[in-house]
Amino acid sequence: MTKRRNFVTLLLVLLLAFLAVNLSYPVYFDRAVDFVNAKLNLQNSKYKIPHFLGKPFRLGLDLQGGSHLLYEADLSSIDKKNYSSAMQGLRDVIERRVNLFGVQEPVVQVEEAAGHHRLIVELAGIKDVTEAIKMIGQTPFLEFREQRSEEEVKQLTEQLGIKEGDEIPAYLYGEIYFKSTELTGKYLKTAQLAFDQTTSKPIVSLQFNDEGAKIFEDLTTKNVGKPLAIFIDGLPISVPVVQGPISGGKAQITGKFTLEEAKELSRNLSAGALPVPIKLISQQTVGPILGKTSLEQSLKAGVIGFLAIIIFMILFYRLPGVLASLSLVIYAIFALAIFKLIPVTLTLAGITGFLLSIGMAVDANILIFSRMKEEMSQGKNFGTSVDEGFRKAWSSIRDGNFATILVGVILFALGIGFVKGFAFTLIIGNVISFFSAIFVTKNSLQLFVGTRLEKKKWLWG
User: 307 and 455, same structural domain?
Assistant: First the structure.
């Protein structure tokens, strides 16, 4: 029964590995699918076999090329206790802007060094850096808009050549259905996360200054039962309906918010309300040729190192080395598939973290095999040696992986940029290596218990 369980476990692992390898590199699977579809004449049929999920690896700035921009924020007019929320709100707005600009998966981070508050923007694969810099350099703009009348909407759509039934482009939606008012972010004193006293759901609490309170009261009085939309940089972030006139300069934005969404909304409102000028102090451009060369060299080094480890394991540990090599191959396949699925932005530092985690995977197998050899040298049978080898190596494997993952978590929490990438791939790699050593290697070894091969001592080192 135990051997059957080992066999089923390995079969499931191999099936998952097959799916993972095709996710990581679907070229051969897709070619086979095209061949079968052609033979069965299914190319134009709804029953044709589809290609595997096409999802490219996300490459970082150093591998894909692009621009690294460093801005310094002027927080001189901001209260110190609001520094963090102002910078986070600024980060959210800048990230949304570069996404609208067409940058795929930008990296926007904030950092504080020697009293300077800075914004790091990495635009991998960007083509028009000048336009991106111009867009990023604008001050976040918050405004409240009221709904247009049907006549105004009809007039605007006719001017734009939009006919009844036509789909209105997303970027024109706010302009067509809402019109600007004089209430903007400069009248907003604070925007804070709060919770509804009845439902305990997260809401956003607004507080205007005296002038803004008067404007807000007038707006809500004439828009009872109508939406009063909140825009940042021309994009609607909330469209609450006015329930009645609001005096005192206080308001609440309610909706189906998660806690994180409410936090982000309050940060964005604060960023739109607070003047946070930013100045470009550094720009570095990474060419695609350098990125391509770095990627090719990294992959070449990784393959050579991986093959060297496999050769060493087989020569030194023989059949267990073969099983360990199978475990390492499955580990690499799973790791690459997970990097695609999450997805992880792969940089040179991230690839280094992944390669380093291979060492932990090898270390686990070496500990297991060394303990097994000790047990077999004492005259114990193969099955007992396997069980004792894993039992005695377990504490060292557990502590080693735990210590490495803990260091990775600390680096990820406190580090920035490439340090985070290194830490993240190191953590993922260690978790997967732990799985491969325990499930793949152990179940593979246990399949040989009770067979004729277990008696051939030279096979087991």
Answer: yes
Measured CA to CA, the distance from residue 81 to residue 73 in angstroms comes to 15
The one-character DSSP state at 248 is T
Q: Which residues contact 382 (CB under 8 A, 6 or more apart)?
A: 376, 448, 449, 454, 455, 460
292-335 per-position pLDDT tens digit:
677 778 778 888 888 888 898 888 888 888 888 888 889 889 99
CATH number for 325: 1.20.1640.10
Q: What is the CATH number of the domain that holds 133?
A: 3.30.70.3400
317 within domain boundaries:
yes
CB 388 within 8 A of CB 457: no
Q: Report H helices in 187-246.
A: 210-222
* Number of domains forming the structure of the chain: 3
Q: Calculate ∠ Cα 53-56-10, nearest 5°.
A: 55
237 and 368 belong to one structural domain: no
**Residue 72 sits in which domain range?**
64-141+277-286
**Residue 39, domain member (yes or no):** no
pTM to 2 decimals? 0.63
| Residue entry with tokens 């051997």 | 3
Question: Is the domain of 369 the same as that of 383?
Answer: yes
DSSP-derived secondary structure for 111-166: EEETTEEEEEEEEET-S-HHHHHHHHTSPP-EEEEEEPPHHHHHHHHHHTTPPTTP
Please give the Cα distance from 225 to 232 (Å, whole number). Answer: 23
Backbone dihedral region for residue 248 (phi beyond 0: left; psi -120 to 50: alpha; all else: beta): left
406 in helix, strand or coil? Answer: helix
The model's pLDDT over 141-183, given as tens digits with 9 standing for 90+, comes to 778 999 999 899 888 888 888 887 777 777 788 889 999 898 8
